[in-house]
Write a structure and sequence with these properties.
73% of the residues lie in helices and 0% in strands. By secondary structure, it is an all-alpha fold.
Length: 98
């Protein structure tokens, strides 16, 4: 009997590394954006930065928090590209190993 797709995906070292990289990138950039946006934008606390990073990387982007500085927007672009890339890789892996 074949293993379920999530088990086969997480058995792949590259997939696990990609997920860990995405989580670390989200946390680091979510923390980095707080001092850049405090006082000028609406991301004032660490929790705000982490929430914004998670919603940005997953493509949800509620719009409740958003960067207004150029550096903050560049961080947003990095998170968006990383999110689309990792979810694209996950989709491909699911199709390939499924």
């Amino acid at each position: 009997m074949p293993q379920p797709i999530p088990n086969r995906l997480f058995a792949q070292r590259n997939f696990r590394q990609s997920i860990v990289l995405l989580i670390m990138l989200s946390i680091i950039l979510g923390l980095m954006i707080v001092p850049l946006e405090t006082g000028v934008g609406n991301i004032h606390q660490i929790g705000d930065g982490l929430w914004w990073a998670v919603t940005t990387v997953t493509g949800v982007g509620y719009g409740d928090l958003y960067p207004v500085t150029t550096a903050g927007r560049l961080i947003g672009v990095i998170l968006q590209v990383a999110g689309v890339s990792i979810f694209g890789v996950a989709n491909w892996c699911g199709a390939y190993f499924g």
